[in-house]
Design goal:
Distance between the termini of chain A: 40 Å
Number of domains of chain A: 2
Order of helices and strands of chain A: HHHHHHHHH
Order of helices and strands of chain B: HHHEHEEEEEEHEE
Shape of chain B: elongated
Number of strands of chain B: 9
CATH architecture of the largest domain in chain B: Sandwich
Number of helices of chain A: 9
Strand order of the largest sheet of chain B: 3-9-8-5-6
Structural class of chain B: alpha+beta
Structural class of chain A: mainly alpha
Strand content of chain B: 25-35%
Largest sheet of chain B: 5 strands, mixed
Distance between the termini of chain B: 61 Å
Radius of gyration of chain A: 19 Å
Number of domains of chain B: 2
Strand content of chain A: under 5%
Oligomer: heterodimer
Protein backbone atom coordinates (compact mmCIF):
# COMPACT_ATOMS: atom_id res chain seq x y z
CA UNK A 1 0.00 0.00 0.00
CA UNK A 2 1.49 3.37 -0.92
CA UNK A 3 2.32 5.39 2.19
CA UNK A 4 0.24 8.31 0.93
CA UNK A 5 -2.98 6.28 1.44
CA UNK A 6 -1.96 4.06 4.31
CA UNK A 7 -3.30 4.49 7.83
CA UNK A 8 -1.00 6.01 10.42
CA UNK A 9 -0.12 2.67 11.99
CA UNK A 10 1.06 1.23 8.66
CA UNK A 11 3.56 3.85 7.56
CA UNK A 12 7.21 4.44 8.34
CA UNK A 13 8.44 6.78 11.06
CA UNK A 14 9.59 9.18 8.37
CA UNK A 15 6.20 9.23 6.61
CA UNK A 16 4.51 9.77 9.96
CA UNK A 17 6.74 12.73 10.71
CA UNK A 18 6.14 14.23 7.25
CA UNK A 19 2.36 13.92 7.59
CA UNK A 20 2.43 15.77 10.91
CA UNK A 21 4.74 18.42 9.49
CA UNK A 22 2.69 18.90 6.31
CA UNK A 23 -0.87 18.44 7.61
CA UNK A 24 -3.09 21.39 8.47
CA UNK A 25 -3.49 21.97 12.19
CA UNK A 26 -6.01 19.58 13.73
CA UNK A 27 -5.92 17.13 10.82
CA UNK A 28 -3.17 14.82 12.07
CA UNK A 29 -4.50 13.55 15.40
CA UNK A 30 -4.11 9.91 14.33
CA UNK A 31 -0.51 10.47 13.21
CA UNK A 32 0.38 12.30 16.43
CA UNK A 33 -1.13 9.52 18.54
CA UNK A 34 0.79 6.94 16.51
CA UNK A 35 4.06 8.84 16.94
CA UNK A 36 3.40 8.92 20.67
CA UNK A 37 2.56 5.19 20.72
CA UNK A 38 5.80 4.32 18.94
CA UNK A 39 8.23 6.50 20.80
CA UNK A 40 6.88 7.20 24.30
CA UNK A 41 7.98 3.77 25.64
CA UNK A 42 11.54 4.36 24.39
CA UNK A 43 11.68 7.82 25.94
CA UNK A 44 10.31 6.43 29.22
CA UNK A 45 13.09 3.80 29.33
CA UNK A 46 15.59 6.55 28.56
CA UNK A 47 14.11 8.57 31.42
CA UNK A 48 14.23 5.65 33.83
CA UNK A 49 17.94 5.26 33.13
CA UNK A 50 18.90 8.91 33.31
CA UNK A 51 16.43 10.29 35.85
CA UNK A 52 16.17 7.14 38.02
CA UNK A 53 12.55 7.82 38.79
CA UNK A 54 9.47 6.28 37.20
CA UNK A 55 7.26 9.35 37.59
CA UNK A 56 9.93 11.65 36.16
CA UNK A 57 10.34 9.25 33.22
CA UNK A 58 6.59 9.49 32.53
CA UNK A 59 6.85 13.27 32.56
CA UNK A 60 9.87 13.19 30.28
CA UNK A 61 8.07 11.04 27.68
CA UNK A 62 5.10 13.36 27.59
CA UNK A 63 7.27 16.45 27.41
CA UNK A 64 9.58 15.14 24.68
CA UNK A 65 6.73 13.98 22.45
CA UNK A 66 4.85 17.24 22.93
CA UNK A 67 7.98 19.18 21.98
CA UNK A 68 8.59 16.94 18.97
CA UNK A 69 5.07 17.41 17.63
CA UNK A 70 5.28 21.12 18.25
CA UNK A 71 8.56 21.31 16.30
CA UNK A 72 7.18 19.19 13.47
CA UNK A 73 4.12 21.42 13.17
CA UNK A 74 6.34 24.47 13.13
CA UNK A 75 8.47 22.99 10.33
CA UNK A 76 11.54 23.01 12.56
CA UNK A 77 12.53 19.36 12.10
CA UNK A 78 14.93 19.56 9.16
CA UNK A 79 15.35 15.81 8.60
CA UNK A 80 12.05 13.97 9.14
CA UNK A 81 13.77 10.80 7.89
CA UNK A 82 15.74 10.89 11.14
CA UNK A 83 12.83 11.53 13.46
CA UNK A 84 14.09 8.86 15.89
CA UNK A 85 17.41 10.67 16.25
CA UNK A 86 15.56 13.94 16.73
CA UNK A 87 13.48 12.42 19.55
CA UNK A 88 16.59 10.94 21.17
CA UNK A 89 18.35 14.31 20.98
CA UNK A 90 15.31 16.01 22.47
CA UNK A 91 15.25 13.39 25.24
CA UNK A 92 18.89 14.07 26.05
CA UNK A 93 18.42 17.81 26.08
CA UNK A 94 15.21 17.66 28.11
CA UNK A 95 16.53 15.22 30.68
CA UNK A 96 19.53 17.48 31.11
CA UNK A 97 17.22 20.31 32.06
CA UNK A 98 14.94 18.12 34.14
CA UNK A 99 14.05 20.82 36.62
CA UNK A 100 12.37 22.79 33.90
CA UNK A 101 10.10 19.90 32.88
CA UNK A 102 7.14 20.56 35.10
CA UNK A 103 6.81 24.21 34.15
CA UNK A 104 7.24 23.42 30.45
CA UNK A 105 4.74 20.55 30.46
CA UNK A 106 2.08 22.62 32.15
CA UNK A 107 2.53 25.39 29.61
CA UNK A 108 2.41 23.00 26.64
CA UNK A 109 -0.51 21.02 28.01
CA UNK A 110 -2.42 24.28 28.33
CA UNK A 111 -1.74 25.00 24.65
CA UNK A 112 -2.47 21.50 23.31
CA UNK A 113 -5.13 20.16 25.63
CA UNK A 114 -6.23 17.57 23.08
CA UNK A 115 -2.74 16.16 22.61
CA UNK A 116 -2.31 12.40 22.46
CA UNK A 117 -0.38 12.46 25.71
CA UNK A 118 -3.62 13.34 27.40
CA UNK A 119 -5.69 10.70 25.66
CA UNK A 120 -3.82 7.51 26.61
CA UNK A 121 -3.27 5.82 23.25
CA UNK A 122 -4.22 2.15 23.41
CA UNK A 123 -0.68 0.84 23.21
CA UNK A 124 0.40 2.74 26.29
CA UNK A 125 -2.63 1.75 28.36
CA UNK A 126 -1.73 -0.19 31.46
CA UNK A 127 -1.92 -3.95 31.35
CA UNK A 128 -4.66 -5.80 33.17
CA UNK A 129 -3.71 -5.38 36.84
CA UNK A 130 -5.20 -8.66 38.20
CA UNK A 131 -3.38 -10.56 35.45
CA UNK A 132 -0.06 -8.87 36.24
CA UNK A 133 -0.60 -9.55 39.96
CA UNK A 134 -1.33 -13.19 39.20
CA UNK A 135 1.82 -13.50 37.09
CA UNK A 136 3.90 -11.85 39.81
CA UNK A 137 2.49 -14.33 42.32
CA UNK A 138 3.48 -17.18 40.02
CA UNK A 139 7.17 -16.20 40.12
CA UNK A 140 9.44 -17.80 42.71
CA UNK A 141 9.80 -15.81 45.92
CA UNK A 142 13.33 -14.63 45.11
CA UNK A 143 12.50 -13.72 41.50
CA UNK A 144 9.46 -11.73 42.60
CA UNK A 145 11.37 -9.92 45.33
CA UNK A 146 14.11 -8.82 42.91
CA UNK A 147 11.46 -7.54 40.48
CA UNK A 148 9.67 -5.64 43.25
CA UNK A 149 12.85 -4.15 44.64
CA UNK A 150 14.04 -3.09 41.19
CA UNK A 151 10.90 -1.73 39.58
CA UNK A 152 8.60 -0.95 42.51
CA UNK A 153 10.95 0.12 45.32
CA UNK A 154 13.34 1.53 42.64
CA UNK A 155 16.31 0.12 44.50
CA UNK A 156 19.62 0.04 42.63
CA UNK A 157 21.21 -3.34 41.97
CA UNK A 158 24.21 -3.02 44.33
CA UNK A 159 21.83 -2.16 47.16
CA UNK A 160 19.56 -5.11 46.30
CA UNK A 161 22.59 -7.38 46.27
CA UNK A 162 23.60 -6.08 49.68
CA UNK A 163 20.08 -6.44 51.09
CA UNK A 164 19.67 -10.00 49.84
CA UNK A 165 23.22 -11.10 50.59
CA UNK A 166 23.96 -12.12 47.01
CA UNK A 167 26.29 -10.78 44.31
CA UNK A 168 25.26 -8.00 41.89
CA UNK A 169 25.76 -10.53 39.09
CA UNK A 170 23.25 -12.86 40.73
CA UNK A 171 20.74 -10.00 41.04
CA UNK A 172 21.16 -9.30 37.34
CA UNK A 173 20.72 -12.95 36.37
CA UNK A 174 17.62 -13.25 38.55
CA UNK A 175 16.17 -10.07 37.06
CA UNK A 176 16.75 -11.29 33.49
CA UNK A 177 15.03 -14.60 34.24
CA UNK A 178 12.18 -13.06 36.21
CA UNK A 179 11.35 -10.39 33.64
CA UNK A 180 11.45 -12.91 30.80
CA UNK A 181 9.02 -15.13 32.73
CA UNK A 182 6.82 -12.19 33.62
CA UNK A 183 6.71 -11.15 29.97
CA UNK A 184 5.79 -14.67 28.85
CA UNK A 185 3.05 -14.86 31.46
CA UNK A 186 1.55 -11.39 31.06
CA UNK A 187 1.88 -10.88 27.31
CA UNK A 188 1.78 -14.46 26.01
CA UNK A 189 -0.33 -16.18 28.67
CA UNK A 190 2.34 -18.74 29.64
CA UNK A 191 2.51 -19.48 33.36
CA UNK A 192 6.10 -19.41 34.77
CA UNK B 1 17.73 1.88 10.57
CA UNK B 2 14.68 -0.37 10.87
CA UNK B 3 15.65 -3.99 10.69
CA UNK B 4 12.88 -6.63 10.54
CA UNK B 5 13.70 -9.44 12.96
CA UNK B 6 16.47 -7.31 14.46
CA UNK B 7 18.10 -8.95 17.45
CA UNK B 8 20.65 -6.26 18.14
CA UNK B 9 19.19 -5.51 21.58
CA UNK B 10 18.03 -8.54 23.53
CA UNK B 11 15.21 -8.31 26.06
CA UNK B 12 17.77 -9.07 28.80
CA UNK B 13 19.99 -6.17 27.69
CA UNK B 14 16.93 -3.94 27.64
CA UNK B 15 16.16 -4.85 31.26
CA UNK B 16 19.73 -3.80 32.18
CA UNK B 17 19.47 -0.48 30.36
CA UNK B 18 16.88 1.45 32.42
CA UNK B 19 18.31 0.28 35.75
CA UNK B 20 21.71 1.68 34.84
CA UNK B 21 23.65 -1.57 34.69
CA UNK B 22 25.33 -1.07 31.35
CA UNK B 23 28.60 0.79 30.85
CA UNK B 24 28.09 4.27 29.40
CA UNK B 25 29.34 3.35 25.92
CA UNK B 26 27.03 0.32 25.69
CA UNK B 27 24.12 2.41 26.93
CA UNK B 28 24.79 5.12 24.35
CA UNK B 29 24.96 2.50 21.58
CA UNK B 30 21.65 1.03 22.76
CA UNK B 31 20.04 4.47 22.77
CA UNK B 32 21.25 5.29 19.27
CA UNK B 33 19.91 2.01 17.92
CA UNK B 34 16.70 1.95 19.94
CA UNK B 35 15.43 5.24 18.58
CA UNK B 36 15.95 4.19 14.98
CA UNK B 37 14.81 0.55 14.96
CA UNK B 38 11.11 -0.29 14.97
CA UNK B 39 11.71 -3.92 15.94
CA UNK B 40 13.74 -3.02 19.03
CA UNK B 41 11.25 -0.22 19.73
CA UNK B 42 8.51 -2.85 19.96
CA UNK B 43 10.60 -4.87 22.40
CA UNK B 44 11.20 -1.70 24.42
CA UNK B 45 7.45 -1.03 24.44
CA UNK B 46 6.84 -4.50 25.92
CA UNK B 47 9.36 -3.88 28.69
CA UNK B 48 7.92 -0.42 29.31
CA UNK B 49 4.40 -1.87 29.57
CA UNK B 50 5.54 -4.52 32.02
CA UNK B 51 7.51 -2.12 34.20
CA UNK B 52 4.61 0.33 34.33
CA UNK B 53 2.18 -2.44 35.27
CA UNK B 54 4.19 -3.64 38.27
CA UNK B 55 3.34 -0.66 40.51
CA UNK B 56 -0.46 -0.90 40.11
CA UNK B 57 -0.29 -4.68 40.64
CA UNK B 58 1.66 -4.31 43.88
CA UNK B 59 -0.56 -1.46 45.05
CA UNK B 60 -3.61 -3.65 44.44
CA UNK B 61 -2.32 -5.70 47.41
CA UNK B 62 -2.93 -8.89 45.44
CA UNK B 63 0.72 -9.85 45.01
CA UNK B 64 2.07 -10.71 48.46
CA UNK B 65 5.10 -12.82 49.22
CA UNK B 66 8.39 -12.27 51.01
CA UNK B 67 9.29 -8.59 51.02
CA UNK B 68 11.78 -6.23 52.64
CA UNK B 69 11.36 -2.88 54.33
CA UNK B 70 12.12 -1.17 51.00
CA UNK B 71 8.88 -2.57 49.55
CA UNK B 72 6.85 -1.84 52.71
CA UNK B 73 8.19 1.72 52.78
CA UNK B 74 7.14 2.29 49.19
CA UNK B 75 3.67 0.92 49.93
CA UNK B 76 3.43 3.30 52.89
CA UNK B 77 4.55 6.26 50.75
CA UNK B 78 1.81 5.39 48.27
CA UNK B 79 -0.83 5.32 50.99
CA UNK B 80 -1.46 1.57 50.99
CA UNK B 81 -2.84 0.66 54.42
CA UNK B 82 -0.63 -2.02 55.90
CA UNK B 83 -1.35 -3.84 59.17
CA UNK B 84 1.90 -5.14 60.64
CA UNK B 85 2.33 -7.94 63.16
CA UNK B 86 5.77 -8.41 64.71
CA UNK B 87 5.80 -11.96 66.05
CA UNK B 88 8.29 -13.72 68.28
CA UNK B 89 8.47 -17.53 68.31
CA UNK B 90 5.51 -19.07 70.14
CA UNK B 91 3.46 -15.86 69.98
CA UNK B 92 -0.31 -16.17 70.12
CA UNK B 93 -1.83 -12.83 69.14
CA UNK B 94 -5.26 -11.51 68.15
CA UNK B 95 -5.36 -10.99 64.41
CA UNK B 96 -6.98 -7.58 64.20
CA UNK B 97 -7.59 -6.83 60.54
CA UNK B 98 -9.69 -3.75 59.93
CA UNK B 99 -12.09 -3.33 57.06
CA UNK B 100 -9.88 -0.76 55.33
CA UNK B 101 -6.57 -2.59 55.73
CA UNK B 102 -5.10 -3.57 52.37
CA UNK B 103 -1.94 -5.47 53.20
CA UNK B 104 -1.06 -7.59 56.20
CA UNK B 105 2.67 -7.78 56.93
CA UNK B 106 4.03 -10.49 59.20
CA UNK B 107 7.42 -9.82 60.75
CA UNK B 108 8.41 -13.33 61.77
CA UNK B 109 11.28 -13.25 64.21
CA UNK B 110 13.41 -16.29 64.96
CA UNK B 111 16.93 -17.60 65.44
CA UNK B 112 17.76 -18.50 61.86
CA UNK B 113 21.34 -19.58 62.51
CA UNK B 114 23.12 -20.50 59.29
CA UNK B 115 19.98 -21.51 57.43
CA UNK B 116 20.12 -20.55 53.75
CA UNK B 117 16.45 -21.06 53.01
CA UNK B 118 13.32 -20.78 55.09
CA UNK B 119 9.96 -22.33 54.33
CA UNK B 120 6.86 -20.67 55.70
CA UNK B 121 3.67 -22.65 55.96
CA UNK B 122 0.28 -21.23 56.91
CA UNK B 123 -2.46 -23.46 58.24
CA UNK B 124 -6.07 -22.54 58.73
CA UNK B 125 -8.15 -24.93 60.85
CA UNK B 126 -5.36 -27.50 60.46
CA UNK B 127 -5.23 -27.31 56.65
CA UNK B 128 -2.18 -25.92 54.89
CA UNK B 129 -3.33 -23.01 52.73
CA UNK B 130 0.02 -21.53 51.79
CA UNK B 131 3.64 -22.66 51.54
CA UNK B 132 6.46 -20.41 50.42
CA UNK B 133 10.23 -20.68 50.50
CA UNK B 134 12.34 -17.57 50.87
CA UNK B 135 15.72 -16.33 52.00
CA UNK B 136 16.76 -14.16 54.91
CA UNK B 137 17.52 -10.62 53.77
CA UNK B 138 20.78 -9.45 55.24
CA UNK B 139 19.17 -6.01 55.62
CA UNK B 140 16.93 -7.44 58.35
CA UNK B 141 18.71 -10.31 60.10
CA UNK B 142 16.62 -12.16 62.64
CA UNK B 143 13.32 -11.72 60.86
CA UNK B 144 11.50 -12.66 57.73
CA UNK B 145 8.81 -10.34 56.40
CA UNK B 146 5.85 -11.80 54.56
CA UNK B 147 3.05 -9.71 53.02
CA UNK B 148 -0.37 -11.02 52.19
CA UNK B 149 -3.63 -9.43 51.04
CA UNK B 150 -5.66 -8.26 54.03
CA UNK B 151 -8.79 -9.13 52.04
CA UNK B 152 -7.80 -12.79 52.14
CA UNK B 153 -7.61 -12.71 55.94
CA UNK B 154 -10.86 -10.75 56.25
CA UNK B 155 -12.87 -13.33 54.38
CA UNK B 156 -11.89 -16.07 56.86
CA UNK B 157 -14.35 -17.09 59.57
CA UNK B 158 -13.27 -16.82 63.21
CA UNK B 159 -10.36 -19.23 63.19
CA UNK B 160 -6.75 -19.69 64.28
CA UNK B 161 -4.09 -19.15 61.62
CA UNK B 162 -0.93 -21.08 62.36
CA UNK B 163 2.32 -19.96 60.81
CA UNK B 164 5.26 -22.37 60.84
CA UNK B 165 8.83 -21.70 59.82
CA UNK B 166 11.24 -24.42 58.81
CA UNK B 167 14.94 -23.84 58.16
CA UNK B 168 16.92 -25.53 55.40
CA UNK B 169 20.68 -25.64 55.22
CA UNK B 170 22.57 -28.31 53.32
CA UNK B 171 20.84 -31.62 54.08
CA UNK B 172 19.52 -30.26 57.33
CA UNK B 173 15.89 -29.28 57.89
CA UNK B 174 14.60 -28.16 61.25
CA UNK B 175 11.48 -26.51 62.63
CA UNK B 176 12.27 -22.95 63.62
CA UNK B 177 9.22 -21.30 65.07
CA UNK B 178 5.47 -21.37 65.31
CA UNK B 179 3.17 -18.35 65.59
CA UNK B 180 -0.59 -18.22 66.04
CA UNK B 181 -2.91 -15.50 64.85
CA UNK B 182 -6.33 -15.66 66.44
CA UNK B 183 -8.67 -14.29 63.82
CA UNK B 184 -12.10 -13.20 65.00
CA UNK B 185 -13.43 -11.66 61.83
CA UNK B 186 -13.03 -8.28 60.21
CA UNK B 187 -13.07 -5.24 62.49
CA UNK B 188 -15.02 -2.06 61.74
CA UNK B 189 -14.17 1.40 62.95
Amino acid sequence: MPETNATADAISDEALARRIADGPAGSTDAEEAELYRRFAPRVRLYGRRHLRDGAAADDLAQDVLLRTIERLRAGEVRRPEEIGSFILGTSRMTAHGERRITRRREALAARFVEMPGNTSPASTATLDTPRVASCLRALTERDRLVVLLTYYAEREAPRIAEDLGISPGAVRAIRHRAMARLRECVLRGHQP
Amino acid sequence: MTTPGCGQISFAALTDYPVGELPGTDATAIEDHLFSCAECGTRAAELDQLVRAIGPAVRSAEVGGFVTDAVLNRLAREGVRTRTFALSPGAVVPCAVWEDDEVMALRLRAEFGVASEITMSQRVAGNEVLRATGHIASSSPGELVYALPAAWVRQLPAVEIEVLLTAHGGDDERPLARYTLVHEGSLRR
